[in-house]
Amino acid sequence: MTSFAPAPPLDTLAPTLDPTRVRLLDLLDQRQPGRSLPGALYTDPELHDLDLRLLWHRQWFFAGTVAEVPEPGDYLTVDLGTVSVLVLRDDDEQVRAFRNVCRHRGARLVSEPRGSVGNIVCGYHRWTYATDGTLRHAPQLVPTAEGGPDPACLSLRTVAVRVVSGLVFCCLAAEPSADVDAVGEAVAPYLDAHALDRTKVAAQVDLVEQGNWKLTMENNRECYHCDGHPELLRTFFPTWGLREDQVPPRLRASHERYLAAEEDLRVACEARGLARDAVEDLVDRPLGFRVQREALDGAGESFSPDGTRLVGRLLGDLDEPRLGRATLHAQPNLWLHALADHVVTFAVLPLGPDRTLVRTTWLVDADAREGADYDVEALTGVWRATNSQDAAFVELTQAGVADPAYEPGPYSEGERQVDAFVSWYVARMREEASR
């Protein structure tokens, strides 16, 4: 008779990783500090799937602004792979977020990127939910008194949401990190004066870049390529990100002009109690971020060809247009510029391994009048041009990292924040993949 040894207890078995996770960890280990990522991390569909599941579905991400859901029933949707999140303002004027899935048989509740509802009504079998997610009506559902389910147990599945100085962040994790609250405290002194809760959307443009989402974020973290942004360089100093000893001779005049503008900004900020100095934690915390107020070139007021203001009404209670730009970068998918006359936000959303949505939103004072206080074409001109140029750069890079000849190259002195972003990505993915 053949005898068999008893199987070991389940709790003594070492966890096994699926082959894709093993490959991911191997590629993360291959990455050298100060160099870009191995090509497969920008191109492989299975690894992109892990980006979604291990990072986007577990970390806080930027969904939009409170100005995009100004009234009860107003909503926006954010799609991350097969996951759809519904963000809306409820009847009590609180911003909430839900999984965009009916609790009956799973139909998608809302298919448009934005809109307004009285109740949330499933288009399949007309199950109806209040704006707080509770089930209000389910045709032909067996009553609880007759053995049917409790409607209270069929509310929409909630998604964690935090409003940070008018910015809406969401997290799909069952136990979201509390990190967003600490980041919110850090950025409030820079953004609160711009009163995003008293703004409206003047324009919103969606642009699909033909590249991986990480390339989009990397491109934003350096001005090494800013010679390719002639419109932006009218107000955006080209020595951004460089230390004093790194400024090349050809940019010395621009840098001296930058230093003078920075001193003027320091005086203006101190007089108004506005935070100015850089605060950053880009690698070690789950919601890596950097925030700073910096001077603008030209008249120093706004993103216009000569730097003069683009909106007649200033934001919040600000009394001076020449206050530079309060810039916030948050990982994985946000950067923004808050000026005295408007705010422009950028949301980065992955559509596929080589396709990324960049959603740009321009906010102005809620009482500003189009045609009188601002012109949409003028307001959006610089960043529409810059986004188009950046899309071309990202597409060029995507083509290159997909080429067998690609090898991760060294970053320049001005690409410190690119290295920080990639290091953050490696750390977060290694943490999640090893669980």
TrEMBL record:
Domain (Rieske) ranges: 60-170
Keywords: 2Fe-2S, Iron, Iron-sulfur, Metal-binding, Oxidoreductase
PANTHER family, alphabetized: CHOLINE MONOOXYGENASE, CHLOROPLASTIC
Cofactor(s) named in the record: Fe cation
Protein name: (Fe-S)-binding protein
Domain of life of the native organism: Bacteria
Lineage of the species this protein comes from: Bacteria, Bacillati, Actinomycetota, Actinomycetes, Propionibacteriales
Segments traversing the membrane: none
InterPro entries per record: Rieske_2Fe-2S, Rieske_2Fe-2S_sf, Ring_hydroxy_dOase_asu_C_dom, Rng_hydr_dOase-A
Pfam families associated with the record: Rieske, Ring_hydroxyl_A
PROSITE patterns: RIESKE
Organism: Marmoricola endophyticus
GO MF term set: 2 iron, 2 sulfur cluster binding; iron ion binding; monooxygenase activity; oxidoreductase activity, acting on paired donors, with incorporation or reduction of molecular oxygen
